[in-house]
Amino acid sequence: AAFARVVERDGVNAAALWLEKKHGVNVHPSNVARWLADWQQRDQRERILADVRAVAAQSAELLAAAGGDTDKASKTLLDQLAFDRLMAGRPADEVTDLVKIAAIYGESVSATERNRIAREKLKLSAGKLRIDERKLKLLEAKAAQADATKAVMTEVKLTPEERDRKIREILGL
């Protein structure tokens, strides 16, 4: 890291001289330039990997906070990434794109949630309809029993015992 600072601060020629003076190693400046490019790529990969690990950890925390609701956690993460990039002074286009993605995702999530709620309401309505149909059938059966009982009660040819027997049959007693 110290050598990288020397190269970045003073240039590859000065870094080659520094190596020769400090460590007795004779290195051509083009080799120093190649090393610097490799080191910068490796450093950039490590920073990207650290960012990915941080986002993964943050995603896990958000998912736990959202009670396992991945849509809610993802929306929160997109909002947080946009905020982080804005605060880090990233290009406006990058922040704007994340804000747009978060808004679109939020609309998608809310539409998905509205659809889920509508499906649940339909299921409840269908269940209520089945219950109402069952009640109607029971009421129709009771009305038929009442009509049959009324007909037996008004029939004058029957004795009281026959009338009682027929009423019990109708009522299922």
Radius of gyration: 41 Å
Mean pLDDT: 78
Briefly note the structural class of the backbone.
Answer: mainly alpha
- Helix-strand pattern: HHHHHH
Major beta-sheet overview:
none
Instruction: Please count the helical segments.
Output: 6
Helix content: over 70%
Sequence stretches where pLDDT stays below 50 over 5 or more residues: none
Q: N- to C-terminal separation?
A: 98 Å
Q: Shape from CA axes? A: rod-shaped
Count of strand segments? 0
| Proportion of strand residues | under 5%
Description:
With about 170 residues, the protein is an all-alpha fold. The protein contains 6 helices and no strands. The chain has helices at about 1-10, 10-25, 30-65, 70-85, 90-155, 160-170. Helix 2 (about 10-25) crosses helix 3 (about 30-65), helix 3 (about 30-65) packs across helix 4 (about 70-85) and helix 5 runs antiparallel to helix 6. It is rod-shaped, with a radius of gyration of 41 Å.
